[in-house]
Amino acid sequence: MLSRQSVYLAVACLLATAPLRAADTPKATFEWDLRLRHEAVDDAAFAHDAQATTARLRAGVRLALAPGWSALLEGEGVAGSGHYNSGANGKTAYPTVLDPTSAELNQAWIGWSGAQAGVTVGRQRIVLDNQRWVGNVGWRQNEQTFDAVELRWRPTADLTVRYDWLDKVHRVASDRALNPLARERNLDTHLLNVAWTRGAQQWVGYAYLHDDRDVASASTATYGLRWTGSLLHEGRGLGWTAEVARQSDYARNPAHFDHTYWLLEPSWTQAGVTVRAGWEHLGGDGLTAVQTPLATLHAFNGWDDQFLVTPAKGLEDRYLGASGKFGFGTLAGKLNWALTWHDYRSDTGGLHYGSEWNASLGFPLPGGLTGLVKLADYRADAFARNNTKIWLQVEWRGKQTLAR
């Protein structure tokens, strides 16, 4: 079994064996992502609304050490003001906006990539498929990253095999969260993802053995198969996603369960607009349910984030959505819009949890900036309380090659 000491030893070995000569000067690129956001939350469970204005700067230096060799050192800082519960400021009389003031190391890794194989060791961003099971939670100001070893192998042009061993997850609540378990978790997690791509279709088989060393009840084994594809002709046609998985208790989990997950999402694209219908099922028996603690949860089951933890009775999310681009003159095709309606029900017990509308509009701004207006409106029935969230955001990303 791998340990932290094994990771540090592997990093040292990689550095020692990197084919650098004394006369070599690594090529360096400075990268940054500056994001300013205002989030307003009207939650019927609280007497006060939340108003949070936060700014996030993520910046780092990427080094091209030698052919095939690269490294990244990246920090992240978040500043905030307003009346909201950040998970670190103790303002529990207000709704939660999980963007606490913080400053921490976000990524620090070294890697090698060749024609058919690659390896990355250190603190890194890990994103698998649509991020339903493992992702970086890029929506939150503080990103989720992992202390991990990643191995990649591409034996043919169509087949990609990926294995990740996770030693620790650094969560979005940051290292200043009042709850230590919300800061980070010690793991011994093994992720195997095998993808076969042919044309516009892809089949993915996966086995995710998640061992949470700090919270045993979060440990699960998930095995699944995912199929995505499209039949587009001149920008018009059918698309689809179909996925099925089975999740059971794993490692030291004291519970015993075996739950089913599935997703069906057909779509149709025409005249630059994509319309989709979806049915996502996370099984539950009243005691336990399918959980996805390493996922980019904001991207699923509504932007209002009511279901970051799947209720014990499970979750049925049936939704209809549309998205596309529009614009006129210099903005032609540069305005991105999305609209989705969700209906939430339990897997067992016949409960109607509630429903939700999501809407967003993204647009370019002068100077290479991008803007976003976003809305989530949840209407409760048998789960939680009515809740509305509005976001206004401006972001600036870029990179600059440094002198050698």
UniProtKB/TrEMBL annotation:
Assigned keywords, A-Z: Signal
Signal sequence extent: 1-22
InterPro entries noted in UniProt: Alginate_export_dom, Porin_dom_sf
Domain named Alginate export: residues: 33-248
Superkingdom: Bacteria
The name this protein goes by in its record: Alginate export
Source organism phylogeny: Bacteria, Pseudomonadati, Pseudomonadota, Gammaproteobacteria, Lysobacterales
